[in-house]
Amino acid sequence: MTLCIKNGMVVTPLEIFPAADVLVEDGRITGVGPGLAAFARGEVLDAEGLIVAPGYVDIHVHGSAGHDTMDGTRKAIAGMAAFFATRGVTSFCPTTMTVAGADIMQSVRAVKECQDTPVAGAQPLGVHLEGPYIEGSMKGAQPAQFVRPAEPAEYEEFFSLGNIRLISLAPEIEANKPLIAFARSRGASVAVGHSAATYEQVAEAVALGVNQSTHTFNQMAGLHHRKPGTVGAALLLDDLYAQFIADGVHLHPAVVDMIVRLKGVEKAVAITDAIRGAGMPDGEYDLGGQTIVVKEGAVRLADGTLAGSCLTLDAAVRNITAFADVCLCDAVRMATLTPARSIGMAHRKGSLEPGKDADIVLLTQDLHVAATIVMGKVAYRA
Q1: pLDDT-based confidence at 178, cuts 50/70/90?
Q2: Rounded to an integer, what distance in angstroms lies between the CA atom of residue 37 and that of residue 26?
Q3: d(CA 54, CA 375)
Q4: Are 102 and 132 in contact (CB under 8 A)?
Q5: What domains sit in the chain, N to C, each tagged with a CATH number?
Q6: Are 119 and 155 in contact (CB under 8 A)?
Q7: If I label 328, which of 62, 155, 322, 367 is the partner at 20 to 30 A Cα–Cα?
Q8: How far is C-alpha 312 from the geometric centre of its chain's CA atoms?
Q9: pLDDT at 1 over 80
Q10: 252-270 average pLDDT score
Q11: Whole-structure pTM over 0.85, yes or no?
């Protein structure tokens, strides 16, 4: 299988080629630069007038198009994957919730099945366990009855299939601390999330292996001039990547700008935290057995608590260009190479470089998706 994408404005990790080509063979990128179309074999896509960028990588997303990770089925993951491809996402981490262990394990198995026998569209990189080992006072939309401290017999089962890519937890809880080293030893990244940790407790957790913060500012101890809290640590500790939701609801645009300025594009990770209502009409949906209401771009429980988002990653990139003073290359990087690096996948994902997976999105000049290519195959055309 060979493919040439020619005449596009190509976004690489460090620069933009105004007119260049991308060569693909057997699902891998073999060349990037001007004048390569002359060497093309097989299918040719003319990208004149389009931006050619790495496929988006969403490491924190619960669902979309009526499906949710916690449905625990191949059908649900496949439905999410198909929808994500329409929004330029080529890989993602299906994200669980704080629920019963058996339900979490069912979802872990469903994701593993989709990794072993790929679905059409975006490809799952592994599971993001959001909880259940969180701080109850910072549960947000996570069901309170299932919040619990980490127990080795349980989390060892979660990790038994080898496909946990990321786990969010509250590191200030003593029982959760051994899990940090355990997760890192099995190739997973660890995020501080749904946490009331002090600045000092987060610094201690970073020394143990925590490397990012979950939806920064949301459901974590806030910033105070005498108590920097979880937020202060997320912003100031250089070893931490900072996930952020650029939907204009979870964070004021100025706060998005602040995160990008303080963390830099190398450490600021655009996520969606989207739920099954993403890509669907306003109305009521289920989230972990709870009724949520999608209305005018926001998702809330009946009591008004934010409960994920309806954001898509292509919209997040457009928002970042409006909210923060960054160039196109940097806005794209925060939805591609930076998230890939944060979960140890930058050797395969996140940039247009020879040897990497041919995960590519073609964008219009206003950053809407014209086509999505996953592992060298066209998964979506507008």
Answers
A1: very high
A2: 17
A3: 11
A4: no
A5: 2-53+354-381 (2.30.40.10), 56-342 (3.20.20.140)
A6: no
A7: 62
A8: 10
A9: no
A10: 98
A11: yes
Gap between the Cα atoms of 105 and 69, Å rounded: 11
Question: Is the separation of the CB atoms in 350 and 57 below 8 Å?
Answer: yes
What is the distance between the alpha carbons of residues 40 and 31, in angstroms, rounded to a whole number?
10
Token duo for residue 301: 């429980």
Q: State how far the Cα of 335 lies from the Cα of 358, in Å rounded to an integer.
A: 16
Q: CA–CA distance from 320 to each of 220, 258, 260, 268, 333 (Å)?
A: 22, 11, 9, 11, 11
Q: Give the CB-side neighbour count of residue 88, counting CA atoms within 13 A.
A: 27
Please give the C-alpha separations between residue 151 and each of 84, 148, 157, 175, 181, in angstroms, as whole numbers: 34, 9, 10, 7, 14
Q: What is the CA radius of gyration of the chain?
A: 20
> Would you state the structure tokens that stand for residue 55, as one six-digit string?
């496929």
The band of 152, judged by pLDDT with boundaries at 50, 70 and 90, is very high
Higher pLDDT, residue 54 or 15: 54
HEC string for 207-223: HHCCCEECCCCCCECCC
Burial of 366 (0-12, 13-18, 19+ CB in 10 A): exposed
Residue whose tokens read 């690489």: 12
Shortest CA distance to 193 belongs to which of 143, 234, 251, 237? 234
Q: What number is the average pLDDT over the span 128-133?
A: 97
Band (125; pLDDT cuts 50, 70, 90): very high
Is 273 among the catalytic positions? yes
- Rounded CA-CA distance 76/73 in Å is 5
Q: What is the pLDDT of residue 14?
A: 79
Residues facing residue 360 across a β-bridge: 54, 373
Give the strands of the sheet with 123-124, arranged side by side.
56-61, 89-94, 123-124
CA angle 147, 58, 331 (to 5 degrees): 125
Q: In this model, does residue 15 exceed pLDDT 90?
A: no
Tokens of 319: 């928002």
The residue type found at 333 is: R
Q: What is the CB neighbour count within 10 angstroms for residue 75?
A: 13
State the pLDDT at residue 142. Answer: 96
Q: Scanning the structure block, which residue is given the tokens 């190479």? A: 337
DSSP class of residue 69?
Answer: G
pLDDT at 136: 97
Model confidence over 326-372: pLDDT tens digits?
A: 999 999 999 999 999 999 999 999 999 999 999 999 999 999 999 99
